[in-house]
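Case study B.
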Amino acid sequence: AQSVTQLGSHVSVSEGALVLLRCNYSSSVPPYLFWYVQYPNQGLQLLLKYTSAATLVKGINGFEAEFKKSETSFHLTKPSAHMSDAAEYFCAVSENFGNEKLTFGTGTRLTIIP
Amino acid sequence: DTGVSQDPRHKITKRGQNVTFRCDPISEHNRLYWYRQTLGQGPEFLTYFQNEAQLEKSRLLSDRFSAERPKGSFSTLEIQRTEQGDSAMYLCASSPRGVTTGDTQYFGPGTRLTVL
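Model:
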């Protein structure tokens, strides 16, 4: 069984400040890990993914995440927040075999303060 | 790629009515997934197709739910005798089946269902 915990359902940061969204996972097998972003009334868009290559993964819009096996974490960061980053962010895990269905966390709503 | 499309975008129905949603995946993507997202929650897996074969169904998918993917192209999700608890966003995603695993799932805009 696999699961994802996202600490902080709401995070607020000032424009230009560091963004840090936390994700911890549980998986009985080596996982694939994903971060998706969802804007209001839209579907999910992939930001980045970890599939057992480099542990530091760079994604779109300046986001990156680091896979830390010892901490079972995959936190999302961005050095400088932009107003357009305001959205809901979901961390997800899948097993690296079979149908690779995604198990999502409950999401973190990011608000950017001007 | 034109992306994953879903129709309708919004559906309001009365309790007890049947509803059907359609998903058109990215062409040549042979994997298709359905998820359900309720307010304040992340999406939850419902079912999965590899080409036209439905290979897994979640326990969330009661007998009132049925999904098909004829000819391995578009998919439909039908809910019979809708209940207020069925109100949610229904998301469709598709992915290629490449040589390596961990393929990205591309999501459609979703169908928001409201059951009165």
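Chain B has a mean pLDDT of 92. The remaining cases will be described in the next quarterly update.
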